[in-house]
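Sample pair:
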Amino acid sequence: MRNVNDYIRRLAIIAFILLVNFIFAARVLIQELPPRSEVALTKILRQNIRTIRLYPDRGLIFDRYGNILAGNKYEYELYAIPANVKEYMHDQDIDSIISLLQVDSLQLRKNLLEVIHARSVLYKPRLIAKYIPPERAAYLQEVLFRYPGLYFVKRAIRTYPAHSAAHALGYVRLADSSDIKRDHYYQLNDYIGKRGLEESYEKYLRGKKGVTRLWVTSNGFVAGRYLNGKHDTLPVAGKNLVTTLDLELQTFAEWLLNDKPGAIVAIEPHTGEILAFVSSPYFDPNMLTGKDVSVNFPKLVRDTLFVPLFNRAIQSDKNPPGSTFKIVQALVALQENVINTNTIFTCYGGFHYHGINIKCHIHQPVVDFYYSIQTSCNTYYSNVYRRLIENPNYPNTHQAYQQWYEYVYQMGFGHRLGIDLPSERPGSLPDTMTLTISLRKKNWAFPDVVHMAIGQGKIGVTPLQLANMVSMIANRGYYITPHLGKRIGDSTLKFEKHYISIDTSNFTKVIDAMERVFMPGGTAAFSHIPDLRACGKTGTAQNPKPSGKDDNSIFVAFAPKNDPKIAVAVYIEEGGPGSQTAAPIASLIIQKYLFGTIRTPYLYDIRLKNKNIFEKIIKRENAKKARYKN
């Protein structure tokens, strides 16, 4: 019997020792849990641990001189834990909260009632109010102890103090399900950059979220920090982005396009840095931030006549370049030795060949190389293009055309240039195979492509490509990928340099001819800038006759001639002749950038002041609707 008692006593001692060790090990395990195990424990004890995400400040965006283009303002979001709130919340509590916050009372009441009547996911925080100004949040913060289960989260909301450059900057909105699925950084109610620089540099601008965990009592009161904040992290602010934009030039260019559809792109030739980037119609980027975005975004989308969200500078790639393309033809023709600066063609009002008639405006009948660009002679460049396509140095027309295509492709046409913005379009430049398919004939020849000679037909370009082209000419044979980002954080951004396989001497000849465009007798003589040697080329692109649209007005230019500081392309839809609308705008932009003032204010007063193209388009469309109804 004694042996049995001793045996039982020993078993009890061993069991006690094992129990003490188990309890000790469990406490150590709970205190020293690795992150993944801690997540599992948090799920088990979710009713006692409140996890609050801490949002970082989004990186600021500046222009090249330090002016803020995109900043942050601080507002608050109110969250509720259903399990805690539903125990005490009554109508008078709801009325009191609404009175203190002064936000959308119907939506806030609806959200609080949903929380009160929640039957599942009782310990998951629910967003019940956002865009709460700090001064209103402060009123509720003072009495928040009365409402366990409610808490605030501070958020940085995007703001655009310059009210400018919407198409370059883009906007910030709530991440949707596809964003969350694609990048696990994002969760419900997170913000993400969309379009423009906000999207392109999102991973730098967004920063890194932090987290804090709190012990809470069963009725929702905060008892302290979980594990004394051992695993809490602070948010890390996003990196600042310095852009290449000149805010003063940008706002001036926007003002010039206030009532005209189209685009302006200005580039610093030696660096590829974009100085101004305008798509018109434009809008205040603040329309797409804060509480009014749900009203403003649909309003912009519904404008199907002018489509303000459409970025014409990089997406409008179906428009032909018109006569600005003649300087490209000149470069290729000089390089291929099918013409030289002494080559002469006669022009009696147009180019006539095998039933093809391309009209030309009135000028002297004998046209040499320099005069052809100065007066923009269609006949001259139709003959030049014929020599290129029927070049006897190639076995057949197709190979001659393909060689021409390769030169033009090098100059940045027919493909995306790689600007640091999303949704750039490539334009249209058909190669031989594409032409064979589109023309539905194998043995096509010069008459089938003759209209490309003057920048019409199957060629489509973006205003960015035109600005890049004239920048490449200003550099005498190279361009750097056009870009808007200059520095991100402490890092300077680098972009590729592209060389064109055309002799520098040929660029010099074309540049000499482009200088004459601003001289007496030139198509842009009226836009001449006193005491400045500038080089340019006008363009007028025809729209299809059934559309009822007027011609598009185009102009490209750079200055000064021998030390280029700015290259600019202006594309005005339905603006008429390039000399009438686009050239004066380009001249004013060059003056503003180089001199800081306007030397020829009459350009605006005479050519631009009363030219409201938006109004003209609206009247035409209303007339169409009236005819349709009748």
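Residues 413 and 465 are 7 Å apart (CA to CA).
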